[in-house]
Each structure stands twice: as C-alpha cells, then as structure tokens.
Amino acid sequence: MARDVAAVGRLNFDARPQLPSIILEVDQLQRAVEDMRTSLRSFRKYVPADLVAMLMASGQEAALGGTSPEQEDMVEKFAQALHACHRQEWTEALRGFEALLERWPQDAPARQMKRRCEAFREQAPGAGWDGVHHMESK
C-alpha cells in the first residue's frame, strides 16, 4: 500500500489490484487511497498534469489567488488561444497553443486544442459554430 500512495504522489495513477484486508482500518485505508487516485485522475483531465506537478513541487496548497506568475501566465495564454479558436481565427489560435507547448511541452489540453485547430483550419465548422467539438471516434 505504501508503494501505491507513493505512486499517487508522483501522479502515477496506474491501479494495482488490492487484496481485501480482514483488518477494518487497512481496508478503509485502501479504499481511501483508491478514492484519492480516482479523484486526482479526474482532476488531471481538467488541469494540465505539469501544472499539478508544479503545484505539488512548490509545497504550497492551491488556493484562489494563490497562483504563481508562471501559472497565471499559462492560464492567460491558454485563454487567449481558446478565444481565438472560438472566433475561428485558426492561425492565431495555433500560434497561441504552439507557444504554450514550447514552454510547457507536456500540456495535454494545449496539445489537443492545437490538433483541433489544425483540423478546423482544414475544414472550418462554419458560421453559427457554438465552440463545441463533436468527437468522430473514441
């Protein structure tokens, strides 16, 4: 169980099957670790993993208004690129997402949005687009 907790601390969420314990406290602790793993895995879908790692490395708890200038810069640049995407200004949006990826290469949301903008540049969604991306496949 200690290895599982350490793996979660390194943002490695690969689950290993746990054997149920007859000791109530150990069983509860295993379930708590699994709940933590699931929650952090969900959180990672909305916040870039490198940003989470940066927060963890700082040793500071994330709080409203408690971001570093680098984090604020990342969020601002992503928002600018996303707004350009919603305006269907694909070249500007691509430049923004590419700049993010140069500075934060592991930024999965920026990488995904860059791919979407490249596809939209080839085949624009057209007037009346609401900004929603419909997946074509899994």
Largest sheet: none
**Oligomer status:** single chain
Tally the helices.
6
The low-confidence parts are none
Strand content: under 5%
The whole-number mean of residue pLDDT values reads 81
**Topology, number of strands:** 0
Rg estimate, integer Å:
19 Å
Tell me roughly what share of residues is in helical segments. Answer: 55-70%
Shape: elongated
Ends distance: 33 Å
Order of helices and strands: HHHHHH
The count of domains is 2
Structural class: mainly alpha
Descriptive report:
The chain is mainly α and 138 residues long. The chain has 6 helices and no strands. Helix content is 62%, strand content 0%. The chain starts with a helix and ends in a 16-residue tail after the last helix. The relative contact order is 0.09.
In terms of topology, how is this protein built?
Layout: H1 2-9, H2 24-44, H3 49-58, H4 69-86, H5 90-103, H6 108-122
Helix pairs in contact: 4-5, 5-6
Put the structure in a nutshell.
The protein has 138 residues and is mainly α.
Can you tag this structure with a few keywords?
6 helices, mainly alpha, 2 domains, single chain, 138 residues, 62% helix
